[in-house]
Design brief:
This protein is α/β, with parallel strands linked by helices. The protein has 4 helices and 4 strands; from the N terminus they run βαβαβαβα. The protein is globular and about 35 Å long.
């Protein structure tokens, strides 16, 4: 485990939800963050290299976690946490920012005692 954990945030196309998470936490000194998507149309497509880099993976929906587990079952996967955020929000939407901030911070506090 790194002193500063590597956090990977995923969503369908890396256009709205995961990109918003990366944007709001990109200068956070507590951890490193990267966002990716599953679709070939993603800004940045999920790769094995991303999974190997991550100490913790956040997914927006239950199905995303299952997809990662299936695609990379040959790897020793990091913990996958589900944020339960549907694809109903635009990039940098105020409600989306609030949900991401609350849910990511509370998970990091529990998993890494990062305040």
């Amino acid at each position: 485990m790194n002193v500063k954990p590597n956090i990977l945030v995923t969503c369908g196309r890396n256009k709205r939800r995961s990109r918003t998470a990366e944007y709001i936490f990109k200068n956070d000194m507590r951890f490193n963050i990267r966002s990716v998507g599953f679709s070939p149309k993603s800004e940045r497509l999920l790769s094995e290299r991303d999974v190997l880099w991550a100490d913790l993976i956040f997914v927006m929906e239950q199905g995303h976690g299952s997809r990662i587990s299936g695609m990379y079952r040959h790897l020793d996967l990091p913990s996958i946490e589900i944020l339960h955020i549907e694809d109903d929000y635009e990039y940098l939407n105020e409600k989306l920012i609030e949900m991401l901030t609350d849910r990511i911070n509370s998970t990091l506090k529990i998993k890494y005692d990062i305040k």
